[in-house]
């Protein structure tokens, strides 16, 4: 464990904002559940009474999450896959159907990127980020919707995105992918409303998770200057919002993007790569 994120005991010592039993009788599917926000979401869903489906590529990390949330006596299904493979996504939903029936809430949290000047992003890296964050999320959304349509019932999707309203220097690929997910979500929120399907996005700002380790430590420390609160957000602050938005408390919300970002969308200079002199205050002539 590094200095970032919360371990299982720390998560277990916290209390979700939503009432006990909020997800009782429901099945919540979480991608990227082996680490960071997804692992926190697994704690929250289990504590709120859900059957929980844990997905991601690395089965050992998923098993570890399953063991950690065993303390809440939830029913848990571990299903490793890459969301980039549409057939694997179909198999996932079949496995969920066999174990729990339809999922009620699908949380598309899996994703990531690497810091790079846009001009240097190699084609393979571009495709990895787009295929994961946009393509993978789309495969999950479409398959969930098809299953709900075929079962003659609705459902709820929450897509974890990022703050894309301003530029994101150093992560152009993820900015493009996440903006794509937001546009897609708003579009199918209309198309799938007649099916009783709600789709919303949660846009976290800078959140303390082990995922921060892919960035230069100096850049990460500087990131606390990218929001009005001047601090990292915490996993539980995202988990409370995602669970609220995914569950019945938000039944009149769809096509929404909820920012939980300490004000990053309104203020803050955010660089995941070295800031060019051009943008430094010192570069202004007297
Ligand atoms: C508010 C403030 C917010 C500040 C932060 C701003 C960011 C927005 C907010 C989000 C924050 C977070 O997400 S926090 C962290 C979330 N977690 C992560 O990002 C974890 C790291 N990311 C991933 O693992 C990603 O899933 C992803 C990048 C798509 C990697 O997917 P894959 O495993 O399929 O890909 P790989 O096989 O590893 O690599 C495929 C190619 O990608 C490129 N590539 C991969 N990693 C690379 C690297 N470090 N440097 C260069 N290039 C790289 C190479 O071309 C690789 O090809 P080869 O050269 O042939 O190998
Ligand atoms: N932390 C932050 O500041 C912010 C995070 N976000 C986003 O929130 C989400 C969670 O981030 P965080 O917890 O911080 O980071 P992590 O790196 O800890 O989590 C990302 C998760 O996604 C999973 N994943 C990646 N690629 C795939 C794939 N192809 N198929 C299935 N699962 C995959 C990983 O598991 P595995 O490797 O086992 O597959 C991992 O568990 C990500 O989408 C991230 O980009 C957005 C804004 C800010």
TrEMBL record:
Associated pathway: Lipid metabolism
Extract one GO BP annotation from the record.
Answer: fatty acid biosynthetic process
> Pfam families of this UniProt entry?
adh_short_C2
What EC number(s) is this enzyme filed under?
Answer: 1.3.1.38
Predominant place of localization:
other
Asked whether the keyword Amino-acid biosynthesis is assigned, the reply is: no
Where is this chain's protein located in or outside the cell? Peroxisome
Q: Which reactions appear under catalytic activity for this entry?
A: (2E)-decenoyl-CoA + NADPH + H(+) = decanoyl-CoA + NADP(+); (2E)-octenoyl-CoA + NADPH + H(+) = octanoyl-CoA + NADP(+); (2E)-tetradecenoyl-CoA + NADPH + H(+) = tetradecanoyl-CoA + NADP(+); (2E)-dodecenoyl-CoA + NADPH + H(+) = dodecanoyl-CoA + NADP(+)
Per its record, what are the GO molecular function terms?
Answer: trans-2-enoyl-CoA reductase (NADPH) activity
Q: Which Gene3D superfamilies match?
A: NAD(P)-binding Rossmann-like Domain
Kindly state which keywords UniProt assigns to this record, in alphabetical order: Fatty acid biosynthesis, Fatty acid metabolism, Lipid biosynthesis, Lipid metabolism, NADP, Oxidoreductase, Peroxisome, Phosphoprotein
Primary role:
Participates in chain elongation of fatty acids. Catalyzes the reduction of trans-2-enoyl-CoAs of varying chain lengths from 6:1 to 16:1, having maximum activity with 10:1 CoA. Has no 2,4-dienoyl-CoA reductase activity.
Task: Indicate the quaternary assembly.
Answer: Interacts with PEX5, probably required to target it into peroxisomes.
Family per record: Belongs to the short-chain dehydrogenases/reductases (SDR) family.
The name this protein goes by in its record: Peroxisomal trans-2-enoyl-CoA reductase
């Amino acid at each position: 464990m590094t200095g970032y994120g919360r371990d299982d005991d720390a998560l277990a010592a916290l209390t979700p904002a939503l009432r006990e039993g909020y997800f009782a009788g429901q099945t919540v599917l979480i991608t990227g559940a082996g680490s960071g926000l997804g692992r926190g979401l697994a704690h929250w869903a289990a504590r709120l009474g859900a059957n929980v489906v844990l997905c991601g590529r690395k089965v050992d990390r998923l098993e570890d999450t399953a063991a950690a949330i065993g303390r809440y006596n939830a029913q848990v299904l571990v299903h490793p896959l890459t969301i980039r493979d549409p057939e694997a996504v179909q198999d996932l939903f079949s496995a969920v159907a066999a174990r729990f029936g339809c999922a009620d809430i699908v949380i598309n949290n899996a994703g990531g990127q690497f810091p790079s000047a846009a001009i240097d992003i190699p084609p393979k890296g571009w495709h990895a980020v787009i295929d994961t964050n946009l393509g993978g999320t789309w495969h999950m959304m479409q398959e969930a919707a098809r299953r709900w349509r075929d079962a003659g019932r609705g459902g709820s999707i929450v897509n974890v995105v990022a703050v894309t309203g301003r530029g994101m220097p150093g992560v152009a690929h993820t900015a493009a992918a996440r903006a794509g997910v937001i546009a897609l979500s708003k579009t199918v929120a209309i198309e799938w409303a007649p099916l009783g399907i709600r789709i919303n996005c949660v846009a976290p700002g800078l959140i303390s998770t082990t995922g921060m380790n892919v960035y230069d430590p100096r850049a990460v420390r500087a990131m606390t200057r990218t929001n009005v609160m001047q601090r990292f957000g915490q996993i539980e602050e995202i988990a409370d919002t995602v669970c609220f938005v995914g569950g019945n408390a938000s039944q009149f919300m769809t096509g929404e993007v909820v920012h939980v970002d300490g004000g990053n969308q309104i203020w803050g200079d955010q660089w995941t790569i070295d800031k060019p002199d051009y943008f430094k205050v010192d570069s202004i002539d007297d």
